[in-house]
Design brief:
Number of helices: 11
Shape: elongated
Number of strands: 10
CATH class of the largest domain: Mainly Beta
Order of helices and strands: HHHHEHHEEEEEEHEHHHHEE
CATH superfamily of the largest domain: Pleckstrin-homology domain (PH domain)/Phosphotyrosine-binding domain (PTB)
Structural class: alpha+beta
Strand order of the largest sheet: 1-2-3-4-8
Strand content: 15-25%
Largest sheet: 5 strands, antiparallel
CATH architecture of the largest domain: Roll
CATH topology of the largest domain: PH-domain like
Length: about 300
C-alpha cells in the first residue's frame, strides 16, 4: 500500500485520516490515499504555499433538471467528480465513471461562498450559494465523508474571496483562472474545445457533439437514434413526393430530429464548460507509488 509520506503532499493527517469523532482509522487512511494518489500530479502544481489537504470526497457534479431528464440515470456516472477540501478552498475535479481524473479542474474559494449546507439522508448532497448569487448542488456524497464534512463545516465559512465570487475553472497546464466562455488560457495559451465547434459537430454529424466533448458512448447512442430518424425521414420524403398525405408524418419526424439535435447541443454545452483541452495529452502524467517523482506518460 502507498504510504501517506510517499505521496509527498501536505496532508493534515489528523483530519484526513480520522472519522467524525476525530478517531484515526486505518480504513479511512487507505481510502483517502487511494483517491489522492490519482491526483498527485495535479495537486503538486496546484497547491499553494501553506495549503494543506483536509479531506477527499467522491461525489456527483452539479447538473440541471433538464440534463437529468434528457439523459436519465446514466447522468450520475457521467457527472462523477472528486472534491478535495483544503484549508483554503475546494478543488473540483470532474472524473470518468471510475473516478479517474479528466484533464479539468475548478476551484471554490471559501471566501466566495455565502452558504455551505449539507443536507439529505438517502440523497446526501452539498448545497453552495456563492456571493455572485449562483447556487450549486453536489450529489451522492458517501455517508462517512458526509458525516466528516459536518464536523468540518465551520472551517468552510471564512476565507479570502476571489474577484469571480463563484466556482471557476483553472487551466490544467499552468493553473491560471480561466475566463468564462473563453476557450483559451490567457497565460499559457492552451486551447480548449469550444462551443462553436461543438454546435456545428452536433448539427452536421449524428452524435457529433458528444464525440467532440469526449463522451463516445453517448455519441454512439445518439448516432443510432439520429441515423434511424434520418432514414425514416428520407424514406417518407421520397414517398411523400407521390402521396401528399405523407407530408404530415414527414414534418413530425423532422421535428423529432430537430429536437434530438437541440438536446445534443444542450448537453455538449454543459460538457464543454468543463474546459476540455484540445490536446488530450496535456497533464498526462502519472504517479509512481513509492516514489516522490511524477513521470510523464
Amino acid at each position: 500500500m502507498t504510504k501517506p509520506d510517499n505521496l509527498n503532499l501536505p496532508i493534515n493527517k489528523e483530519i484526513c485520516f480520522s472519522n467524525q469523532k476525530e478517531e484515526f482509522k486505518e480504513k479511512i487512511m487507505k481510502d483517502q490515499i487511494k483517491i489522492l494518489k490519482k491526483f498527485v500530479p495535479f495537486l503538486k502544481s496546484l497547491l499553494e504555499p501553506g495549503e494543506e489537504i483536509l479531506l477527499c470526497v467522491q461525489a456527483t457534479s452539479p447538473m440541471s433538471f433538464l440534463e437529468q431528464w434528457t439523459t436519465g440515470w446514466v447522468i450520475y456516472y457521467l457527472k462523477r467528480c472528486v472534491l478535495i477540501f483544503t484549508n483554503k478552498r475546494i478543488l473540483h475535479f470532474p472524473t470518468k465513471y471510475d473516478f479517474t481524473p479528466k484533464h479539468s479542474v475548478s476551484q471554490i474559494r471559501y471566501g466566495d461562498m455565502d452558504e455551505f449546507k449539507l443536507s439529505g439522508f438517502l440523497g446526501r448532497l452539498l448545497k453552495i450559494e456563492y456571493k455572485s448569487g449562483r447556487k450549486e448542488k453536489f450529489y451522492y456524497i458517501k455517508s462517512r465523508e458526509f458525516r466528516k464534512l459536518k464536523t468540518l463545516e465551520p472551517r468552510f465559512i471564512k476565507g479570502q474571496p476571489s474577484n469571480i465570487s463563484e466556482r471557476h475553472s483553472l487551466c490544467p497546464k499552468c493553473m491560471t483562472p480561466l475566463q468564462k466562455d473563453v476557450y483559451s488560457c490567457s497565460n499559457c495559451h492552451l486551447e480548449f474545445k469550444n462551443m462553436k465547434t461543438a454546435t456545428w459537430m452536433s448539427i452536421l454529424f449524428p452524435g457529433g457533439g458528444y464525440f467532440y466533448a469526449g463522451h463516445p458512448i453517448l455519441g454512439l447512442m445518439d448516432a443510432i437514434t439520429e441515423g434511424f430518424l434520418l432514414i425514416i425521414l428520407i424514406i417518407n420524403v421520397m414517398g411523400a413526393l407521390e402521396r401528399m398525405e405523407l407530408w404530415g408524418f414527414v414534418l413530425f419526424v423532422a421535428i423529432l430530429l430537430f429536437i434530438e439535435k437541440l438536446i445534443t447541443i444542450y448537453h455538449a454545452k454543459h460538457y464543454i464548460h468543463e474546459y476540455i483541452p484540445v490536446d488530450k495529452h496535456v497533464g498526462a502524467v502519472s504517479f509512481v507509488p513509492g516514489s516522490k517523482k511524477v513521470q510523464k506518460s
